[in-house]
Write a structure and sequence with these properties.
The protein has helices spanning 3-16, 20-39, 44-61, 71-88, 108-118, 122-132, 138-145, 149-167. It is an all-alpha fold.
């Protein structure tokens, strides 16, 4: 087990002992990845609620996690399930007043890109949202998801190629 995994296992152990600071550390470390996992599946307006719900569910079920170093993959699966469950629920929505302090809604262009990402194969959605929306680096994505850095790089490359094709852009980066 490397130092990062050992550190993660220790933070999870402390969070299991109800150390709120340890759970806050988990939140800071994984919130961008969880947000990306949700945003890859749910409307923008529901993302923040789903992130909070995923972390609450994880907090309540932390004692069911057998290996602390698996926290990243475990909470991402909780986030995926939360986003899917939210989409299944039918609830009326109301637009918020922009002066309430809520985050600005995505532009039409951003909504188009998110819709195109959501239409891509599952393997590419989250890594693209983590990179393009959350601004995470390849190593950060690998650390959050438990994927190998080379797999992240391949998913980003292939996903960007598909996204460009879907959006009608022949540009390369």
């Amino acid at each position: 087990m490397d130092e990062v995994e050992n550190d993660l296992a220790d933070v999870v152990r402390r969070a299991r002992r109800n150390e709120r600071a340890a759970y806050a550390t988990l939140y800071v470390r994984f919130s961008k990845a969880v947000h990306a996992a949700v945003l890859a599946r749910a409307p923008y307006g529901d993302a923040e609620d789903a992130v909070q719900e995923a972390f609450l569910t994880a907090w309540r079920r932390l004692d069911t996690l057998s290996e602390g170093e698996a926290f990243g993959g475990w909470i991402l699966q909780i986030a995926r399930n939360t986003a899917i469950d939210q989409r299944r629920r039918v609830r009326p929505s109301q637009e918020l007043d922009p002066e309430t302090g809520a985050p600005d809604p995505p532009t039409a262009e951003a909504q188009e890109v998110l819709a195109a990402i959501r239409a891509l194969p599952e393997a590419y959605r989250e890594t693209l949202v983590m990179r393009l929306v959350e601004g995470m680096t390849g190593p950060e994505i690998a650390a959050a998801t438990g994927m190998h850095a080379d797999s992240v790089r391949v998913n980003l490359c292939r996903g960007m190629k598909l996204l460009r094709a879907k959006l009608g852009s022949g540009q390369t980066t």
